[in-house]
Specification:
- The structure is a homotetramer of 121-residue chains.
- The first copy, chain A, is mostly helical.
- The first copy, chain A, has a domain of 74 residues: MazG-like (Helix Hairpins, Orthogonal Bundle), CATH 1.10.287.1080.
- Chain A is 64% helix and 0% strand.
- Chain A has 5 helices and no strands.
- In chain A, helix 2 runs antiparallel to helix 4.
- The radius of gyration of chain A is 19 Å and the shape is globular.
- The interface between A and B is large, with 68 and 68 residues.
- Chains A, B, C, D: It holds the Pfam family MazG-like.
C-alpha cells in the first residue's frame, strides 16, 4: 500500500486539491455533510430499480462497476473532508463504535431462542 | 496506528461481527447501500437547523461531538461493508478518482479570468 | 375532503404552526431541503433490511403502518414548507413534469423490440 | 384547480403512466422509497454549496428555478406512487401529524422562559 493509499495520505491529497482550487470556503461542515449524503444517494441510485439478485451482480458489468467505484470514491472523499475540517478520526471512531456494539449486541449462544431481529448497528 | 485501526483491519472486524450474529443474509449490496445513505442522512440531521457558524462549532459540545463521531462511524461501517461484499477497494477507488479529478479540474494560474464556479468533484 | 386536507390548507396550517412557535428563522430553503432529505431517509430506514416481499406487507403490522404514515407526513410537511418559502407550486410542477415525460418516454406499441430499460422518470 | 392538479388526479396520471410503460414491476414499496430519497437528495444537491443567502435567491435564476421545480416534481411523484402502492393517504397522514404536533409542541405564552430549542417536528 503506497503512502497515497492510506487514509491520512488521501486526506492530505484532498486538502491540497481543494486548496489549490480555492474551494475551502465551500468546504464548511454543513456543506460537506450535505454533499456526503447526496453522494451516498447517488450510490443508492445505481441500485434503486434492481432486484436483490441483480444488485449482487452489479460488478459483472464494467460500466456499472466503474460507476459504483466512482460513487464510493465520492462518498469517501466527502466523509474524509468532513472529518478533516471537524477534527474527527474516522478509523478511531469506527473502532470505538465496534467496541461499543460488541457490548450492546452480545453474541447469542446456539440454542438460545430469544429474538432474532436484525438491529441497526 | 494499531492493526485494528487500518481499513482492512476494520473490515475484518465488521465481517466477524456480522458473521457472529448471523447478519450476513441482511447484508446484501442493496440493503447496505440503503443503510449507508440512511446513516449519511442521520449525520446531516445533526446539522440541519444549525447556521453555518453553529455548524463550525459542533465539536465544542461533548454530546454533539460524540453524536458526530458515532454517525461518522456508522457511515464508514456501512461503506466498508458495502465495499467488502462487492469487492471494491475504497482507498484505491478514491486515489484513482483524485487522479482523474486532477486532469478534469486543472489548477488555474493566477490572473486567469475563466469561470470560478465550484464544481461537484 | 375537508378544507384542511387539501394541499393549500395543509400549507396554511404548517405556516401557522411554525409562526406560532417562532420557527420561521430555521425554515430557510437550505435547512428545509436538508430536513426533507433526512425525513425521506427515515422513511427508507423502515425498509432497509426488509426483503421485497416483507416490504410489500409493511402495512399489515399496525405499528409499522403507523411509522410509515408518520414518516410520509414528515416528508410531505417539509416538501410543502420548502415549496411555500420558495413560491413553488408542487402540484403544478408535477403536472408539468408528467406532461414532459409523456413526450420523453413515448408508449411503445406492442411488438416494438426497442430497449426495455426502466428509466428514471 | 383542474382535475389533474389535485393529488388524487396526479396519482391517477402517475399510475396510468407507469402502467402504459409496464413499469409496475419496478414500482415496489422498497424501490419507490429508495427513489424518493434519491430525488430528495438531488433537490438538496442544488443547494449544497450555496450560502443561506444564495439559497434564498435560488428562484431568481430561471435555470435554477426550473431545476428546483423539476426535482420537487420528482420527489412528489415518488411520494405519491409510494403512498398509492401501500394505500397511505398522504394528506390525511399529514393532517393527523399536525394534530399530534399541536399537542406535542404547545405554543408558549409570551414571557415563558423555558427552552427555546427548535425541535424536529
Amino acid at each position: 500500500m503506497t503512502n497515497n493509499h492510506d487514509v491520512a495520505g488521501l486526506q492530505r491529497r484532498l486538502a491540497e486539491f481543494a486548496a489549490a482550487r480555492d474551494w475551502q470556503p465551500y468546504h464548511t461542515p454543513k456543506n460537506l455533510v450535505a454533499a456526503l449524503s447526496v453522494e451516498a444517494a447517488e450510490l443508492l441510485e445505481i441500485f434503486q430499480w434492481l432486484t436483490p439478485e441483480q444488485a449482487e451482480r452489479v460488478m459483472d458489468d464494467p460500466e456499472s462497476a466503474h460507476r459504483v467505484a466512482d460513487e464510493v470514491a465520492d462518498v469517501l472523499a466527502y466523509l474524509l473532508q468532513f472529518c478533516e475540517v471537524l477534527g474527527v478520526d474516522p478509523l478511531e471512531a469506527l473502532a470505538a463504535k465496534i467496541d461499543r456494539n460488541e457490548v450492546r449486541f452480545p453474541v447469542r449462544r446456539r440454542g438460545d431462542s430469544d429474538g432474532d431481529r436484525h438491529s441497526s448497528e
